[in-house]
Specification:
Helix content is about 20%, strand content about 30%. The chain is of the alpha+beta class. It has a domain of about 80 residues: Aldehyde Oxidoreductase, domain 3, CATH 3.90.1170. It starts with about 30 loop residues before the first strand and ends with a strand.
Length: about 140
Amino acid sequence: MLSPKKTKYRKQFKGKIHGLAKGGFALNFGSHGLKTTQPERITARQIEAARRAITRQMKRQGRVWIRIFPDVPVSDKPAEVRMGKGKGAVDYWAARVAPGRIMFEVDGVPDDIAREALRLGAAKLPVKTRIVTRIAAGAEAIQ
C-alpha cells in the first residue's frame, strides 16, 4: 500500500477540506479520468482497491495513472481507552481530496472498457465521482 517513506512529523492535525481543487483538475496523462465531486479523505486501502478493480477490468492492457497520494497520517486510540494520555498511534494513511480533483486516469484501451473500468473503480471509493474524457481538441468533456 502507498505511504510516505519519510515525514517531517509523525502525526498531524485533522484539518478541513475547503473549496475546490487548486490543481490536478485536468486530464494530463490519459484519455479518460475519474474526477471527484465531494471533499473527502481517501485511505491508502481504498486507493489500492480501486486501482486493482480498474486494472483487472482492463485485463492489464493500457496504462493507469494514480493522481493522488496518501500523505496524511490518521491516528486512532484503541477501543475502551480513557480520554487524555496523548494522541493515539498512526492507524493509516489518507489523501485529502477536494471536489474537482482527478484521482485516476487510464489510456490505451477502448472507450467502453475504460468507462466500465473507472465505474468499477469508483464503486470502491467513498466519494461521488464523474468520468471525464478528453475530446480531440484537447479539452475534456464531463459525462
